[in-house]
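Our preliminary data section would be incomplete without showing what the modeling component actually yields. Below, a chain of 134 amino acids is followed by its predicted structure, encoded as tokens that our downstream tools consume directly.
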Amino acid sequence: MNRHASAKPKLTRNQTLVLDALAGAGQPLGAYALLDVLRGHGFKAPLQVYRALDQLIELKLVHRLESLNAWTVCCDNHHKDTPVFAICNDCGVVTEHFDTQLSNGINSLSERSGFVPDRSIIEIHGQCDKCGDA
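Predicted structure:
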């Protein structure tokens, strides 16, 4: 088993397969791309993938990247700060970052307005160092 599955021993078979597929992909994947990867493991319908992804999000093991309609493995499921994803428009590399000041600002804004967020994810699109140097 990989480090993700061993960290969460209560993962179902489908959750483990989806998590492993995402971890092995090296880039965010959409649900249908995951389905294609997992057909050999008995996945037949998108609902199987979506159900596992929803559960993995609840377990804080994966993130959904809204702008890409894709999912990626969380770099640390114990973080309390809002993740910031830097997404390269050229090569597609996605990196996860944390900024405590930014998270504190988001929490403060929520408290002042009385809004109770259930999640916050920030996505920044641009060009990574490697593509900018090319």
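Confidence is low (pLDDT under 50) at residues 1-6. The CA atoms of residues 27 and 93 lie 6 Å apart. Preliminary results of this kind motivate Aim 1 of the renewal.
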